[in-house]
Amino acid sequence: MALSTDVLVIGAGPGGYVGAIKLGKLGKKTFLVEKDKLGGECLNYGCIPSKALIHAADEYYQPKAAQAHGMNAAGLGIDWAKVQVWKNNVIGGFVRGIASLEKGNKVDVLAGAARLTGPNSAVIVKADGEETVQFAHALISTGTRPAEIPGFSFDGESVLSSKEALELPAAPERLAVIGGGVIGLEIGTFFAKLGTKVTVVEFMDQVLPGVPSELVSPVLRSLQKLGVEILTKSQALGYERTDGGLSVRVKTAEGEKTIAADKILLSVGRVPITKDLGLDAAGVETDAKGHIKVNARYQTNVPHIYAAGDVIGAPYLAHKASQEAIVAALAIAGFETHGIGAVPWTIFTDPEIAFVGETEEQIRARGREPIVGRFPFAASGRAQAVAKPEGFYKVVADKETREVLGVAIVGGSASDLIGEGCLAVKLKATVEDIAEAIHPHPTLCESIVDAAEACVGQAVHILPPVVREPVKR
Length: 473
What we know:
about 475 residues; Enolase-like, domain 1; alpha/beta; globular; single chain
């Protein structure tokens, strides 16, 4: 007999597992189907393992970098295989935690691959056979997988995806990174801190394409200090195995050159996992790239089937997926919903980059006049005290209303600091609201006060170019 449920959730990444929990809390009988591990790509092969290894590499690198401040790093070493064990233990704890959360919210977890067989039915292919499920609603959150390019097929040995790169038992001596986006730079940076000779090949004219160049510049200076070679406006053509490892052929603006490497990290983008879902059988439409089309409530063209997360399109961010899945769950349960709002970005390079909301160019494009305040971390007592003076805190507001419309940070702990910017944008806070909120000293978070007051030329701890009307208190 076929199983029956109110909602079938396909994919247990940060979209699916969160959506399933929310549905359980809303009283919906829910099945959560996952063919690999709870937590999906983010927890098991992406966000969490990469941040754990970034932290480990920082712990190894910082004492060496701090020798200029009186630290003695003699005899410092690292057992990368042991680091991997620690990382895997961290992941395992969270996987078990998700299983407990699902059970606690009365969500049934099914291990297997789901394929839709009609608008209200699916088959679950499990290790011990198949199970048929009838559902009233479905939520698809299957995510994406790494993309390949001609001449570079993933083999897990020479050409690695982010998954294999994060599971290496030892740091390679030489690493060629094809694709200078977020994943390529995050992984390339931590390997560079371990002593790996890293070369980044980027097709566009800047690494981190799409990120404002003013935020990228401090990162480029850091990469240069780490000895990372950056080749922009360059195209990887292919590679050959040699006695000494790998030889990667690259077309650059100056002509063709070869890069000697031991491993190749291919990080040129991601593609949606929709091919074997049976979307045609259910009548669900996709775009030309395979992303599932949805409306503002995350409904597909089949009204009782919803989709959320990377599978519906960029930006491919875990927190975006979770919020979309929550909105979808509320819609399935019959609640009125609204958009998810401004989505923050966090990039765990060194220094970190984080931003949310609009840029001044975007504000002007819709006919408004922005005011901009910037506070350099070089003027921050806390940043100087912890030897991380690189970067700045930036606030962008509307000139007429003084409402904060965007916040951008490049510097130490930017990923943690952006939360206040997210709240300011969400609540339509003004520069006065921020200036009136007392922040503790000495901290990095107090930088937002000077950045906000700098919008009107009234920052206390930097000299403004122009003195304007004071912030009203």
